[in-house]
């Protein structure tokens, strides 16, 4: 079996078509066994007299081998989920968790790192090497290196269980999303929906060998109904199914219920924090982040809420008045998207659907590439003839001065058995190998856009264009690093609350006339986006930005408060309702179970860290204000941003990098101005 197992072979890009569920566990078992033996061997020489190459570089090689096998498996589990693969993936989670806990609690390994950090050789290390050692020693302590043996054992048990629970949360959400569909045979029920949405629903029905149209809870389908369906009862039915996924409420109540999973996750996170000497999990979360303490985060979020809530209340009053004019005097949650879109159209004569025709996928991609090529001095070209996990997947290469820099996969469209949302993950890190050769980075960029239907190319809403730019910003952070040490290259070692800086930063070009000119063109005629339409888009940019801001603050404060106050007797829902009392203006119905599908914090690494989006938005808005001052496509400013932020990865503290670029610490003013939430903007 070993000879035939692709996960145990050396390869450039993963041989996705060859990877089978039966390969996964044997490969992981083999690699973990080999790694344990290799670490025991290297410690014989490195514990007393460690060197960078003998210790850090040797471990990088071992980690890279494990990553080479596990990364494609983890990726396939997210984008091509099936029962067999899921079973193999989940069988490996406790084994991997146990291995990483062992590494974190390996006293001789810790002593070797500590000795290396204190050695005379370390004085000559570059800044990235010093940071990597500093972070490694911090992470040993956060892994319980100083705990008594019994508590170390408990730490390992908790980590293993947390890994399993996070996967269960994600799986139950995916299963719950796919468990509900609505078959429509009377087209009149779809009145108000766009032709493209109906075509997508017809295509979904045909795939199930049904006549008519099939509505699902995948986001493009859900969004279309909530935004355009005239049938209020249909909107209510879909809203109810969507906001009660994986819960004790709604049409599939009790199936795939994430409630018990959340309760156990929170208990274990709190126990873990206490074990390591922290008052609560929010405090533990900040031990490796940019923010100094929990009070600073809460003050930041509440300050934003106080500034934003009056604008949100005004947005809601305008929406209620508009809905009342249309005959709906009791505005409900399933009406908000529908009447918001109607009000946007009335006020600005523009809709997301109208602009879709101007954003065909290939035009958006070519424009996106043109922007970053001008800013960062790189070239991007598409590659053909590669092994893939789905026919829609595309592969691109970045070159600089003719030299290879890295590659990235795009998997852009929603489909069955694919996790919802959008993300970037580093498929391979840039690093200097022990042999001296330079390993180039590879990224996976995943979205869930509406695919091509009815002979038309895939046409993006402007919101989807913004999502694409966001994820590509993460990709550039991973790919354009100049750091050659694995522990600080790309996004490795970057504080979690600064990792969204490059992604949110990229979104700005979706609103700049110079950027829009490059990414838009009518899918039939190629005609440029008309000035009149551009003017409407820019005028509508901050439509309901107050409502959107308090919604994000609701999520951020809920997450942080939930992890800071767990054990005070309140349920998850009671914590959420308390935050809504404080910051929200739109109150969802009592059956809403938003938390049960909040995968970011229960399955996605953002626990007590969702505030990072807003924190980094301050950084990104202020960083972009330099481009506003010097020219939004100014290559000199672009190169400065690349060298200060993108190229240096996790080699130094985020504030040091930001100040190097901006010349000062960040200010909140640019964000409020960009969103129209300041008196100056208003």
Strand and helix layout:
Layout: H1 21-46, H2 52-79, H3 83-104, H4 107-118, H5 127-142, H6 149-179, E1 181-184, H7 195-207, E2 213-216, H8 219-228, H9 232-243, H10 259-275, H11 281-285, H12 294-325, H13 333-348, H14 352-356, H15 361-376, E3 379-383, E4 394-400, E5 403-413, E6 423-428, E7 431-432, E8 438-439, E9 442-449, H16 462-479, H17 501-507, H18 513-519, H19 531-539, H20 545-565, H21 572-583, H22 599-602, H23 612-630, H24 635-646, H25 654-662, H26 669-674
Parallel strand pairs: 5-9
Antiparallel strand pairs: 1-2, 3-4, 4-5, 6-9, 7-8
Please tag this protein with its features:
single chain; 682 residues; alpha+beta; Glutathione S-transferase Yfyf (Class Pi), Chain A, domain 2; 5-stranded mixed beta sheet; two-stranded antiparallel sheet
Hey, roughly how much beta strand do the residues contain? Answer: 5-15%
Rough outline? globular
Strands of the largest sheet, in order across it?
A: 3-4-5-9-6
Please, how many helices?
A: 26
Q: Could you estimate the helical fraction of the residues in percent?
A: 55-70%
What is the level-2 CATH architecture name of the largest domain?
A: Orthogonal Bundle
DSSP strand tally: 9
In terms of quaternary structure, what is this? Answer: single chain
> What distance lies between the first and last C-alpha atoms, to the nearest angstrom?
67 Å
- CATH fold annotation of the largest domain: Neurolysin, domain 3
Rg of Cα set:
25 Å
- Structural class, by secondary structure, is alpha+beta
Specify the biggest β-sheet.
5 strands, mixed
Give the overall pLDDT as a whole number: 96
Query: Any idea of the CATH class of the largest domain?
Result: Mainly Alpha
How many discrete structural domains?
4
Low-pLDDT regions: none
């Amino acid at each position: 079996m070993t000879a035939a197992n692709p996960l145990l072979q050396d390869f450039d890009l993963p041989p996705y078509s060859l990877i089978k569920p039966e390969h996964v566990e044997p490969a992981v078992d083999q690699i973990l066994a080999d790694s344990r033996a290799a670490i025991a061997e290297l410690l014989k020489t490195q514990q007393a007299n460690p060197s960078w190459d003998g210790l850090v570089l040797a471990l990088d090689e071992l980690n890279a081998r494990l990553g080479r096998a596990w990364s494609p498996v983890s990726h396939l589990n997210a984008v091509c989920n099936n029962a067999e693969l899921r079973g193999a993936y989940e069988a490996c989670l406790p084994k991997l968790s146990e291995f990483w806990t062992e590494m974190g609690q390996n006293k001789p390994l810790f002593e070797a790192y500590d000795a290396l950090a204190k050695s005379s050789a370390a004085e000559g290390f570059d800044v990235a090497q010093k940071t990597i050692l500093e972070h490694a020693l911090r992470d040993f302590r956060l892994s319980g290196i100083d705990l008594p043996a019994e508590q170390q054992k408990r730490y390992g048990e908790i980590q293993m269980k947390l890994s399993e629970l996070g996967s269960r949360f994600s799986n139950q959400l995916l299963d719950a999303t796919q468990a509900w569909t609505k078959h429509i045979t009377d087209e009149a029920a779809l009145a108000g929906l766009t032709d493209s949405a109906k075509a997508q629903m017809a295509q979904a029905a045909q795939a199930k060998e049904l006549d008519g149209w099939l509505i699902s809870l995948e986001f493009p389908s859900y969004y279309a109904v909530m935004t355009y369906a005239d049938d209020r009862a249909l909107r209510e039915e879909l809203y109810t199914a969507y906001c009660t996924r994986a819960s004790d409420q709604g049409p599939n109540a009790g199936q795939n219920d994430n409630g018990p999973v959340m309760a156990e996750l929170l208990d274990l996170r709190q126990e873990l924090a206490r074990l390591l000497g922290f008052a609560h999990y929010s405090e533990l979360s900040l031990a490796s982040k940019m923010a100094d303490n929990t009070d600073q985060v809460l003050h930041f979020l509440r300050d934003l809420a106080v500034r934003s809530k009056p604008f949100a209340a005004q947005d809601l009053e305008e929406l209620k008045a508009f809905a009342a004019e249309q005959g709906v005097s009791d505005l409900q949650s399933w009406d908000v998207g529908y009447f918001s879109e109607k009000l946007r159209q009335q006020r600005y004569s523009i809709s997301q659907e109208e602009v879709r025709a101007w954003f065909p996928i290939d035009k958006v991609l070519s424009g996106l590439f043109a922007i970053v090529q001008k800013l960062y001095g790189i070239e991007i070209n598409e590659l053909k003839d590669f092994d893939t996990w789905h026919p829609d997947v595309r592969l691109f290469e970045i070159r600089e001065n003719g030299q290879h820099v890295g590659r990235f996969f795009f998997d852009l469209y929603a489909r069955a058995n694919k996790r919802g949302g959008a993300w970037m993950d580093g498929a391979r890190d840039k690093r200097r190998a022990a042999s001296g050769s330079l390993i180039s980075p590879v990224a996976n960029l995943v979205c869930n856009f509406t695919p091509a239907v009815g002979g038309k190319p895939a046409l993006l809403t402007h919101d989807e264009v913004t999502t694409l730019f966001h994820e590509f910003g993460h990709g550039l952070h991973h790919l354009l690093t100049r750091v050659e040490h694995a522990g600080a290259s790309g996004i490795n070692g970057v504080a979690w609350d600064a990792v969204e800086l490059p992604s949110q930063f990229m979104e700005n070009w979706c609103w700049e006339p110079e950027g829009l000119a490059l990414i838009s063109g009518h899918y039939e005629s190629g005609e440029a986006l008309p000035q009149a339409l551009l003017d409407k888009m820019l005028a509508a940019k901050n439509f309901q930005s107050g409502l959107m801001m308090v919604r994000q603050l609701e999520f951020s404060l809920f997450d942080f408060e939930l992890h800071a106050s767990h054990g005070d007797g309140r349920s998850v829902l009671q914590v959420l309702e308390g935050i809504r009392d404080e910051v929200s203006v739109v109150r969802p119905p009592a059956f809403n179970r938003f938390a049960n599908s909040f995968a970011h914090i229960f399955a996605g690494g953002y626990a007590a860290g969702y505030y990072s989006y807003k924190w980094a938005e301050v950084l990104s808005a202020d960083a972009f204000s330099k481009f506003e001052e010097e020219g939004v496509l100014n290559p000199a400013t672009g190169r400065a941003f690349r060298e200060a932020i993108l190229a240096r990865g996790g080699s130094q503290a985020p504030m040091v990098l930001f100040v190097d670029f901006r010349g000062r610490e960040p200010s909140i003013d640019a964000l409020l101005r960009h969103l129209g939430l300041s008196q100056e903007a208003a």
